[in-house]
């Protein structure tokens, strides 16, 4: 029994040595993992910021225009192009028969695009309507070339005949130099009351306003 104590002490030293070895291995592993995280986070591509939630229902914007059936018999789709200096172009479609609904759709449907062109459709009651290819512009000052646009529906308080009614904004992201991201942040829905005060119009370098004129005679059109 007297000779058992050195063996116990030897075993204890062996266990302690093994524990120190395990601690050393774990420490090296943690350092390597930490280095891996640092390398992974050192990406140069810009991030994207948007306050809008993407769902399948957002692919097409549909509006109820049935209240105008008694006062208007024609629909003229209109697309107006803007930059920070004002309107630069206006596209009008052919006159279409009045309908109960008007739909605005986009193709491709992705909000983050590497394509410089998008097709917008304006269709009454899912019939053939206006289809136009819209030229997209890259986000100014971004470190890489991106064509990033997003659509925002515009809620109209009252549909009026013989007046251009804005129904949707299709706007470009802008570069936030402070946080190094491409940003498109603002209201999920616009109204005629807040449309001019929105951050979209203050910061978006290029955008389209998509709408329509509801009338029997489009000779008199009140500008937006």
Q: What does this 3D model show about the protein?
A:
- Helices cover 19% and strands 39% of the residues.
- With 224 residues, the chain is an alpha+beta fold.
- Strand 12 (174-176) and strand 13 form a beta hairpin.
- The chain starts with a helix and ends in a 9-residue tail after the last strand.
- The relative contact order is 0.18.
- Residues 1-48, 50-58 and 218-224 have low confidence and may be disordered.
Percent in strands: 35-45%
Mean pLDDT equals 74
Helix content: 10-25%
Structural class comes to alpha+beta
Low-pLDDT residue spans: 1-48, 50-58, 218-224
Roughly how many Å apart are the termini? Answer: 102 Å
Report the sheet with the most strands, covering strand number, pairing sense and barrel closure: 8 strands, mixed
Oligomer: single chain
Number of strands: 15
Shape: elongated
Number of helices: 2
Question: What attributes does this structure have?
Answer:
single chain; 224 residues; alpha+beta; 8-stranded mixed beta sheet; 4-stranded antiparallel beta sheet; 39% strand; disordered C terminus
